[in-house]
Amino acid sequence: MADKPRECRARVIAVRRLAAAILEIDLLMVEPPELAFAAGQWVSVPFGPKTVRAYSIASTPQSQKLLTLCADVAPGGLGSRWFRALAAGDEVRFKGPLGGFVFTRADPRRPLFVAEEIGIVPVRSIVGELYATGFGRPAALAYWARDPGWLVYDAEFLSLARRYPSFAYHPVMASATGPWQDAAGGLAEVVDRIVPDVEGLVAYVCGGERMIQRVRDRLVAKGLDRKAVRWEKFW
After folding, report:
1. Which of 65, 126, 147, 208 fits a 20 to 30 Å CA distance from 31?
2. Could you report the per-residue pLDDT of 201-234, keeping only the tens digit for each?
3. Strand order of the sheet with strand 139-145?
4. Are both 88 and 54 inside the same structural domain?
């Protein structure tokens, strides 16, 4: 179980550029020395009395001393500038863990994960935690990006799919024409193809609002209860 949210301090120990505009940082916990969280949760970084930015945790709960955050810094706003400027040795203050976009292990339904670009971050934590702890039931992931360079965790998911036949991985890339050019159309088409039957299904969808709505509508049209679609909107 994750702890209740609390004020935290950590130190940056590594910064990695996964793509032109996607950065990943490793944080070593200082206070508290360990942070219990559930896969899929996020932390809140303050930038003033009423200004905060949320960053999903990319690492799994197996690591409570070292957290990994990942962000798309292309928007260029306050949070993007702060994330770009981070360097090894910097102190980071945040509140966490927060958020309810988490997979319930006792849920007997088969999970479908759907993610658009940076929306993959909480899904990476959930899927990584499941397969690191002996999850043996069928699961599927559809992951859209504008080009191969934006499928930042593609190699990890390909490796998981090779090692665990019950895990079906469906990377989706944009093209000049057809439904694949945007996440809403591309992911809705993939979901339609890979989910012939929604009985016993639960969906976790993360990314932009338009994509979430299209995927949710496609699943509901197939007969899935609307409450069986869990979602987290990034923009």
Report:
1. 126
2. 999 999 999 999 999 999 999 999 999 999 999 9
3. 167-173, 139-145, 110-116, 201-207, 229-233
4. yes
